[in-house]
Design goal:
This protein is mainly alpha-helical. It has 16 helices and no strands.
């Protein structure tokens, strides 16, 4: 997608950005802006919006949407506009590019971290990581903390605090075998899985609802045969027959008849969790 298309997508088409300004036009508008002209301020921002979009594009897919990145870049552009000295021998966008990039990078650091840090610590952490990366590429090893502190002209204690702060975060669910989620780390193996209890409760409710189509004898046979009465184990055909005054074959026929009723399509729908689990 080109820059013009992005501008159309993320801005009101009735208020499209202006054409690029000439040097003379820009100087005049800056003078008017410093005098309090709201239109001049708006014109300067709109005419440089395409540069904000171009600078935001490389930061996509890092935790913020492109529209959010553009908005952060716009804040940097506005900050630069308010600080820009028209006597400087450069264009506004040349001066503003540093501010635009700063606002985008700060937004990524602040709004995509699980734990927020103050701006000054984020800036120091960013410089520290950049130095460590360049140092390791050049010397083939990580720098010592005193080397980092000396390079950044700060106390070694501050470097140690930042280095110790960088925590590791775990997702709730497992990513792969090498990265178990918090559900595995915090799992108490001595306690039954709560999901199993929830499923069993729902499955039991649906089974009892489906069993309303059975007669009393059929329900009693299935209760003994599948331990629905809360006993210690399922009973054999012979033991069920003994309890109900029936032969083992008679119990088998009743069970088969009851199961046939429960296998009807309209009844199976009520018992779906039993087959899916």
């Amino acid at each position: 997608m080109n820059t013009d298309a992005l501008l159309n997508e993320y801005n009101d088409p009735c208020d499209a950005p202006s054409e690029p300004l000439t040097i003379e036009m820009e100087k005049e508008l800056i003078q008017r802006h410093r005098a309090g002209d709201a239109y001049a301020r708006k014109r300067l921002i709109e005419s440089n919006l395409r540069f904000v979009v171009k600078m935001a594009l490389p930061y996509r897919n890092q935790g913020l949407s492109l529209s959010d990145l553009i908005q952060e870049g716009n804040l940097g552009l506005i900050e630069a506009l308010d600080k820009f000295d028209p006597e400087k021998n450069c264009r506004l966008i040349t001066y503003a590019s540093w501010w635009i990039r700063l606002y985008i990078q700060r937004a990524l650091e602040q709004k995509t971290r699980p734990v927020n840090l103050p701006i000054n610590k984020l800036e120091l952490l960013r410089k520290m990581r950049a130095f460590e990366k360049n140092f390791e590429m050049e010397y083939g090893r990580k720098p010592y903390r005193e080397e980092v502190a000396d390079r950044l002209n700060t106390e070694q204690e501050r470097i140690e605090d930042l280095d110790n702060f960088a925590p590791s975060f775990h997702t709730i669910h497992s990513i792969d075998e090498d990265h178990p989620g918090m559900e595995k780390i915090l799992e108490d193996e001595n306690q039954p899985d709560p999901r199993e209890r929830i499923w069993l409760k729902e499955a039991t409710r649906r089974l009892l609802s489906a069993m309303r189509i059975l007669n009393d004898k059929e329900r009693e046979v299935l209760a003994y045969r599948f331990n629905l009465k809360g006993g210690s184990k399922r009973l054999s055909l012979r033991k069920v027959g003994k309890k109900m005054g029936l032969s083992a074959e008679g119990v088998r026929r009743i069970e088969e008849q009851a199961m046939g009723k429960l296998r009807r399509p309209n009844i199976r729908m009520r018992m779906e969790p039993l087959f899916v689990h």
